[in-house]
Amino acid sequence: MAPPELPGGVRERFPWKRFERDCLWRILVQHFWTCSGPTGSGKTFAATTFACERVGRNIKCVFIQPTIALCKQSYTDARRRFPDTRNRVRAIVTRRGSNDKIAHRLTSYLNDRDESGDLLFATQAGFLRTPHWHRADTWHLFVDEAMEVAYYRAFRLRKYRHLLVDLFHVRQSRHERYGILEARDYGQLDEALAQMKDDEIYEHFAGFIWRLRHGHWNLFVDHVAFQKFQTGETYTLEVHGLLAPTIFGSFGSVTLMGANLADSIMYKYFTNEGCTFSNHGAINRGLRYQDHANGSRLLIKYLTEHKWSKTLRNRIVHQQDADRDILGDVCDLYMELCQKEAGNHSTLAPLWIGNNDIRNEEFDGERLKNVPHGMNSYMMHEVCCIFSALNPPQAHRKFLQDLCGMSERQVRRALLSQTAYQSCGRGILRDPSNTGIFLLIVPDRDTAEDIASYYPGCRIEKLASDIQEPKTGRPSKYGSDVERFAAKREQNRASQRRVRKKSLYLSDSSDMSRTPDQIRVAIAHVLTEWAELSPDTKEASGFSHSDWASTSDRYGQGGSMFINTTDMLSDLQRQQHVIRVCKEASLLTCSTVFGSPPRLPDHLVAIGISIEMSIRSKRNAIGCRGYWFDIENGDMLPEDFARVFPNLEFIAYSSWSHRPDAPRYRIGIPSAQFVRPDIHALILHTIVDRLEAAGWGDALTDGRKHGVDVSKLHEAAMFYLPSKRPDCFLTHFRDGRQPLDPRQWINLIQDDLLISQPPPVPPEIYHRADEPANKDKQVQWAIDYWRMVGCVKSKGRTQLWLLAKRLAEAGCDDREMRDILWEQAGFATNPVERRGEIERLLIDPQMLATRCAA
């Protein structure tokens, strides 16, 4: 849905308590409009048009762009195309030789504005330097290209470390590894900033002090590294920083624009902070194209299979010549290759970009600025060479992975690959009317593949080179390939076990203090109660089902709590008579019924607020009936499955890629009753265990393989319905067979599926054996344990459940539990998500039972 006319920021509090649990935090978080069209599609042109057309309606817009050159280019273009509004268009950037600070000039301009519409262009650096934006709620902000939101600085101080550590103290952040810096004395910082010109010692800390004083920069240090720096064990302190999305909170609306915006560090971090995003329909409709259709005109060549870095770039290598060995570093030889390739491809000088330590005279070509976004003055060039090595230091890369939720490859993609992509978009590819081939030369294969993913149809080739690539990495710890393959096999086997265990509710649904037999008795009691929920279908052979249009379908296509096996079979037969163009054109089914999505009031929907969430999640599962399995890459046929379970009724139908010599099919087992989702997962695992006990092993065994996809042994798994295909089949095994009765399978569940060993109690807090009876100390024990374990990434949900359970055991009531959980969730990796689970924890059946027992 297109955004309304420059919508205001979302600051209205949601008053209805029934929506508080699932919706409130989503309404209060920062919301952004986005335009992520590809380079050259005219994002700035369309957005400027959008803003200029609204100047006459007394609407104020400001564009913040990465460079002065881009600001001047956009400013000139807006005044040329809209002469009627040229007097209301202004660009405020740093002027060479001027003593006026950019922040002062911006502030003066803002204070002098009347109620008329305006269009302002400024740099992103100037925006950050402006301490207060006068009447920000009347301005609509357009961030043209993703901002640099990450900061890194390594201070090496031996004797004068007090000059640094006296500026701040470190308090605990929500991530246990990092502490967040707080200024000790803001007056001291202001004085330091004022004296920068007079005292060079403070200039050494200028960027750090400015960010520490800034209200929206969050600076972090590694706790362990900081302790070593304080005690003198090390002399280097690495400071990391992130620009909080709250800096945009006061504006009427904020639109983020940038090619491949979702790959930027800014987008990843804001997403991890709980921000929401919607496409800006008006700007997106004004783009020249939504995807690159000229990929066939791009040829990408790369130097090495290794990851490009300054270490690799500067490494000395030998190159074989006709008469002698040539000694040089990798960068010199890479430049020679690029110069040769560029000369063969084009008569024009090649574009190139590199680190600041590469001098202009080292390569014969047209050097691009390190931030080449948006410039249109290079559209005749046919070659671009990338020499930049932009890997962050290892500690900072780890910081970005921890705080932004990024992988190592995503960090590299956000830095080197996006620089290469922007550089590639400066040449003839930017001109849709040009039909020439553009040559892009990049240093490594990863970068080549990243660029190729944006240009479908392009070609990738390795540079022809005699360079003997250095071997990188540590020596192999295996004596032979046989040992390496054996170790890899064992790793895969352990990984397979982890995939299966991941489907279960080991810590969430099982009381660790009970024995397996006690848990089986509890499950039997639950099954008896659930059987009485639908007495009309009790003992009947059937399924529950929800249907889905695709794997990305958020809300489903409907479903039913019960469909008998005969009707399910008839529906499968109808589906198998339909010819489809591909597997993805089929519907998918799931044996689980899910809760309804939360709904917003009409007045909030009207202003563009929406909740982007899928109802198909484990947390939203209500119950299940029937059991589905995906069988592929195995030796087991449906008849073999029937022999292992001679009394079990089931349906088998072929999947899309089934062939007689490579059987692939799905099995659906009807059930005699509706069950709880966690019990459903236990039975799925138990069926696989019975197959393995009968001699059918998993994918890593040497013998017969059952072929069950163990990643789908959970209640939220979906399965494609059948289609008409060569050699397709649909078989119902029912003679002398009965539907699966969960109550008869309880005693078949293995002990290790019912319980897991509790995590060890840290030695510095109370042990269970001598836990005090006093309620306050029990609560403190639970909180101490949560602080040490629950703040670890990927552990939050499980550990918050355990914290709630221990609070219930201590006798806390609803109000006490809610207050404690809300406060402690602030220390989690994802506080917003954890706080969204609190109300559900309070009504969890085991919590209620525990409180009653307490």
Structural commentary:
The chain is 35% helix and 17% strand. It has 854 residues and is α/β, with parallel strands linked by helices. It has a seven-stranded parallel beta sheet with strand order 3-4-2-5-11-1-12, sandwiched between helices. Strand 14 (316-320) and strand 15 (325-329) form a beta hairpin. Helix 7 packs across helix 9, helix 16 (408-424) crosses helix 17 and helix 26 runs antiparallel to helix 27 (796-809). The protein is globular, with a radius of gyration of 31 Å. The two termini are 51 Å apart. The model is unreliable at 1-28, 505-511 and 756-773 (pLDDT under 50).
Q: What structural keywords apply?
A:
17% strand; 7-stranded parallel β-sheet; 31 helices; alpha/beta; disordered N terminus; 854 residues; 35% helix
In a nutshell, what does this entry contain?
About 35% of the residues lie in helices and about 15% in strands.
Question: What is the strand arrangement across the widest sheet?
Answer: 3-4-2-5-11-1-12
* Protein structure class: alpha/beta
Helix content: 25-40%
How far apart lie the N and C ends?
Answer: 51 Å
> What's the β-strand tally?
30
Largest sheet: 7 strands, parallel
Shape: globular
As residue ranges, the low-confidence spans are 1-28, 505-511, 756-773
Q: Look at the structure and give the mean pLDDT.
A: 83
Measured on Cα atoms, how large is the radius of gyration? Answer: 31 Å
Helical stretch count? 31
Beta-strand residue percentage: 15-25%
Walk me through the topology.
Elements: H1 24-28, E1 31-35, H2 43-55, E2 60-65, H3 68-81, E3 89-92, H4 102-111, E4 118-123, H5 124-129, E5 139-144, E6 150-156, H6 162-165, E7 168-172, E8 178-183, H7 186-194, H8 200-203, H9 206-213, E9 217-222, H10 223-231, E10 236-243, E11 253-257, H11 265-272, E12 276-279, H12 281-285, E13 298-304, H13 310-313, E14 316-320, E15 325-329, H14 330-345, E16 351-353, E17 366-367, E18 383-386, H15 394-404, H16 408-424, E19 438-444, H17 445-454, E20 459-462, H18 481-502, H19 516-531, E21 542-548, E22 559-564, H20 565-576, E23 588-590, E24 592-594, H21 602-606, E25 621-624, E26 627-631, H22 638-644, E27 650-654, E28 665-669, H23 677-693, E29 719-720, E30 730-733, H24 742-745, H25 751-754, H26 775-790, H27 796-809, H28 814-825, H29 831-835, H30 838-842, H31 845-853
Parallel strand pairs: 1-11, 1-12, 2-4, 2-5, 3-4, 5-11, 13-19, 13-20, 16-17, 16-18, 18-19
Antiparallel strand pairs: 6-10, 7-8, 8-9, 9-10, 14-15, 21-22, 21-23, 23-29, 24-25, 26-28, 27-28, 27-30
Helix pairs in contact: 7-9, 16-17, 26-27, 27-31
